[in-house]
Predict the 3D structure of the following.
Amino acid sequence: TRPAQGECMTTTVTTNRRADAAVLRRIWRLHFWVGLFAAPMLVILACSGLVILYSQPINDLLNRDLFLVEPGSATVPLDDQLATASSHVAETFLLDAVIPPAAGDRATRVDFVNPEDPAYPQGEGNATQVFVNPYTGAYLGQREELSGIVGFANQMHRLFGNDGPQVHLPSVGHLINPSAYPDATIPVGTANLWLELSAVWILVLMASGLYLWWPRAIESAKPLLRVRWGKGGRIRWRDLHALTGVIIAVILIGYVLSGLTW
C-alpha cells in the first residue's frame, strides 16, 4: 500500500528538522571549540588593555603617596630634584628619563636603568622610577616600572607582541629572495602567533555565532533581541550570550578586518 499524502509530508518535515538539528549541533561544536581557543586571548587583551587605559587613576588610587603631592607656591630647581633622586639609587644606575609634573598636584618622576640588566630582546626593560616632591624637593619613594597591577597588565599586553618566548618559523622572504633575506627563519613570539591565528578564527567564531542566533523554524520560540530573564538557568544565559555576541559582532569583526591583530 502507498502511504497517504499527509504521511509523506510529515515524514519529509521530520527528516528536514532532524537534518537542521544535526547541522546546528555541528555548528555549535565548532563555535564552542573556536571559542575555547580564541576567547582567552581576547579576555587577556581586553582586561590588560583596560588597566593600561586607566593607568593614571589606578596609580593615583594605589600609589597616591608617590604620584600626588600638595601644591605649593614655588618649586625646587629641577637639577636639585634630579640630585635627590640620584642619591637614592645605586651609583651604577644610568639616568633614563626625567618626567616633570603634568599638573600642579603631581610629583616629578625620574627613571633610572640598571646597565647590568639584559637588554631587549633577551630581557624586558624595567626602569626604577624615583618620585620627588617638586615643591619641597623631598624624596617620596620609588618603584619598579613593571611592578604592581599596571606593570603586570603592561607585561601581559606586551606579551602578544614578539616579547616573551619565541619560535623560529620559515621566512617567506627568504624563499622568494634569499639574497635580500639571508635568514631562513624568523623569530616569532608564541603569544603573537596565538594572536594572529586567533584573528582568523575570531571571524569563524562570529560567523558561527550569527548562524546559531539567526531565526529558523526549528527554534521558532527563540527571541532575537531580548533576554528571557524570567526563564532563568541555561535559557537566560543563552539569551544574554546571544544578544551580547550579536551586539559586539560588528565591532569585533571590524577590529579584526582593520588589521590590528595582524
Notes: The chain has a mean pLDDT of 84.
